[in-house]
Amino acid sequence: MALTPAAGGGDPSTSPLPIQAPGPVNAEVQWDGFDPQTYVRHNYADLRADDREFLRRTRDFFAGSKLSGARCVDVGSGANLYPALALLPFAHTVDLCEWSTSNVCWLRQQVDSYDPMWDPYWQVCAEHPAYAALTDPRRRLARVARVTRTSVFSLPMHAWDAGTMFFVACSISAHRSEAERAIARFLRALRPGSPFALAVMLGSAGYHVGRRSFPAVSLARAEVVAGIAASAYELDVHEERPRPPLRDGYVSMLLTTGRTRG
After folding, report:
1. pTM for this predicted structure
2. Domain range 26-260, CATH class
3. In CA terms, which of 82, 88, 189, 217 is 20 to 30 Å from 126?
4. β-pairing verdict for 70-75 and 212-214
């Protein structure tokens, strides 16, 4: 919201600021109105350098984690397949947990046989030998993936061996407490010692999908890392400042990998 001087031409530095109502909590948002096709076209139709770097780092992290036959989870999958692709070679199952019914439908279609636009993302994965050994990722995803309508706030405790949660905690509410709770619930859903990758937008002011607006919370790097460190160890943190940015209204993207505490 732009701030303007008070009527009569007063000094804007001394004029009273307009009172803004607090943004919506997660439960107040009409998530079933989320348009996954529009979201994918804008965000992932072309593989950007920042997503490539996040995927490369996530790939290398999981490849070095000595996972095999793991029960994996991607939380808040939305309309993004690349976190699940990063888990694929090591997974006995991959649970794609999503709340929006429109996104759930999109995920189920993609799991059956994902769109060719995701091939460049798999090609990044396949630059590592652990992924290159998997010659038919479409068939593998169709076999191991399970799409469920599940809220991040309802995840069971210590249910999975490895997990990802990309751009969820920052983008489901305008309230910092809900972002913090989402991160804590994700980490708690993994068994002790489980490897994970978690990504957020920093400084986000909300976003649009088509004609609809959705809330976000303006997180800072230090508070995100501190919140993760309370439940994890062996953290590695990487920040990307995209040029040009994906959209207006955010500062950077943060990826954190590590292992969960007991």
Report:
1. 0.90
2. alpha beta
3. 189
4. unpaired
